[in-house]
Amino acid sequence: MNLTEEFIQSYTEARTRLKLLLNQLTENDLQKLIPPAPNSIGFLLRHIADVELLFSKNVFKESTISVKAKTVISQKDTGEWTNLEEILNYLREAFTTIIEVLKKQSNDSWNDKITTNEFGTKTKAEAFGRIISHTAYHAGQVAIILKYGKS
Asked: What is the domain-level CATH number for residue 68?
């Protein structure tokens, strides 16, 4: 197995917990939050997909990706993330996109340096760790809100 395939496996595995959460969500769950924290499950799920798409575009320079990262732009939960089917489709699109972008990476490109406004200069491999931890971090928040939150 080559390095790129290992990164694809790592990302797929890292997103497993999120995938399991998505299988049990209802539309009513999207509005749940735990005050005083301001972010609902719907916002967090949209944010995960927004950032995954931004990551694919900005870190891996995939110019064909068009994304309007509404959660990043607003920087707060606007209460509009209430359509479960729409959010699930967007999350699937983000996952498929990042996997396809990863497949385009050559084994020797993982040490290439990239620079972004969000986290400075890193190798692609180091930057990839950021997207894994970002998705896992917010998936953990979703799990806690799903268990203890209220609409």
From this structure: 1.20.120.450
